[in-house]
Amino acid sequence: MGAIRPLEVPSGTDELAAFGITPCEGGVCAAEGIRAAGVCANLRGDPNRRDLALVAADNSCVCAGVFTQNRFCAAPVQVSRERAARGVARAVVLNSGNANASTGAPGVEVAKRVAAIVAAELGCDEEEVLLGSTGVIGKPLELDGFVSGVPMAARALAHSVEAAHDAARAVMTTDTMPKESSYAFEVAGSNDGARATVHVGGFVKGSGMIQPNMATMLCVLTTDADVTAQAAQAALRAATSKTFNKVTVDSDTSTNDTCILLATGAAGNARIDQDSADFAAFCAAIKAVCEDLARMIAADGEGATKLVTVDVLGAANEQDAETVARSIANSPLVKTAIFGHDANWGRVAAAAGKCGVDFDQYDVDIDLLGVPVLRKGLPLPMDEEDMLRRFEGPEVPIVISLGVGNATARVWTCDLSHEYIVINGDYRT
Amino acid sequence: MGAIRPLEVPSGTDELAAFGITPCEGGVCAAEGIRAAGVCANLRGDPNRRDLALVAADNSCVCAGVFTQNRFCAAPVQVSRERAARGVARAVVLNSGNANASTGAPGVEVAKRVAAIVAAELGCDEEEVLLGSTGVIGKPLELDGFVSGVPMAARALAHSVEAAHDAARAVMTTDTMPKESSYAFEVAGSNDGARATVHVGGFVKGSGMIQPNMATMLCVLTTDADVTAQAAQAALRAATSKTFNKVTVDSDTSTNDTCILLATGAAGNARIDQDSADFAAFCAAIKAVCEDLARMIAADGEGATKLVTVDVLGAANEQDAETVARSIANSPLVKTAIFGHDANWGRVAAAAGKCGVDFDQYDVDIDLLGVPVLRKGLPLPMDEEDMLRRFEGPEVPIVISLGVGNATARVWTCDLSHEYIVINGDYRT
User: Fold this and answer.
1) Cβ neighbours of residue A393 under 8 Å, at least 6 residues apart?
2) Cβ–Cβ of B350/A255 closer than 8 Å?
3) What's the pTM?
């Protein structure tokens, strides 16, 4: 029998190259017409920790949003979901330390009061202010810190790399690093024959309670593209479904997942709608930012030491592929084995088999860390020393082919370590 | 507002008292006509560790079985499922150290060879020998240890408390204690007017890779009831669905889940079929043993420090109730909070809300450790000192009422501790 070749994962078309989409500086401030700030408002008992972020467009602009499907959705989600549906916004205000979730009507009232303070500072309608909160669930959110903090944040607003960074840091909880990404590309300008440069960027926070179902905890994206609200919403929904919604740290969907896109139109491009030639490039750029941020979330999952990518091939349909991928990605046994550098691929097989998706075990192939370990349901000899060396890298690829059909899915996760238990055993205290 | 009373969990009818079912000694040997053994066969490289169990009826008898639904079901499952379907068996042979899963056709062949050796020792048809294996997945099972081990086990067979205990110990892997239970009760005798005493007992192993879907890893039950195969299967299936199938340690359904019931008929009762007056008592006794063993599995979950009981009330239907209960029971955030003695009930709310079951958060009540913490979606003041005291006990009750309908579900689990990571980070090494 000849050498067994690793499974080939379809790389997809290289969309970014095709559309000339390249990374750029600036994060959430990459887009023209956007200012940001992250300040220490003493919302969480530490006067030296940034805990309040504000992202504002220079003028009212197009917005889109996707939110958690958790039934216990938080007050800021309830308020923002309704407001984002109008397709127009001016700013997003975010806080860490308190999720304002399971706080009832009083929590909704506090959220609206915070938005009103922001609106007064910016001179806009309070309906144009969206919100995001992250932190402890079930604790009343005090308005006090916002009364002084929001004016401070409004004064600090700036269009700069540093301001974007400050905002990204202000929403961190158990995150160990701020998570930012931005890209630029050219589209048709608003004058015949001219070209316009469009920027897309943003930041996200997320580390635990991560199995987003719509979006992930507190993501703000901005663009200077001139784009219709419908096209913005469509691009955002498409991107989140393929990026944030494919990340799982601990299978726990948050009460506060929020992803908001502000589009200022300052790039001076020909307005993009869903029928525009440039809509595909716009979608690809939004997806590129989301995918960068999604991978950062998985890599920075609470206690994580590895970024794990699970590819499922050969499924009957996409739903089956995703069910199997998520079953593997959420298996505590798979995740602890990876933490322990144990090439225990039998747990990958068991996780694939347990989720109710139909296949024949004797049609299944598995690669772990790029090494074929199972072919047609039969184990292959494995060089344990080689596997240990491969575990030294920062990423762990798992590929499984079910041998049923042609559908595929990719899900990102991380390993499960002691540190996850430490972080979550006394989160409130 | 008056004192808020804890939610009342329906206790169910006291079936055991109604049927006069009382605990007795003997475990898997409580039933007349059953002998057991657990010996050191050196199957796992430790000559002083019991690793081979044998449970044999004195004669061919009625059997029933339920097995994992994992698509990667192990070789012993494939063989036993087919044989148990015939309703007749003589013995069950079990080993720890190697699951004989993902081992292909050679694995099935080894399982059949092991059964043949048992059959030769007992003088029965090899089709009457069922098997169970637990341990590493994907490693070929060597026949050698069984060639000498099975005759040793056959010689050691005895009808005693100690023999039952030895068998229960031989199937342990990461289990920290053997898990046995047995009950006795009276039913109609085979002669008019006479009464007969029936025994039901068994053992189970299970600690990790526990979210049984049909049964749980390696459970052998025995009874001396004279019962039809159909009635035995119906009673077993009903019991497992309410007991083993409601336990989750880590949401990972094993490749090897196996629960087998042998019924010798030695009690001399009037044969029980599904229409017998005594069928309900028989079912209740089987369920009592299964529930005892299921709770032991949850309490002995890998690294567990607490037995957690999740009761969901007020659901629209049983499926919804179970989905919510399982979502809470499998939430790593809920489980780590319990390990950390953190009364972070917001995570219970978030877990209930994430699973797609429809309810209004403002209809929901939650009790944690017997203390009302949420009523109609609003948090109640909580005495943290009192909660810390309540966390000292061995059990943590969580009750959530969805306020939709009248359906309920109960699921058992354990907390998630450092020890789980230690145990599973290097399981194979």
Assistant:
1) none
2) yes
3) 0.78
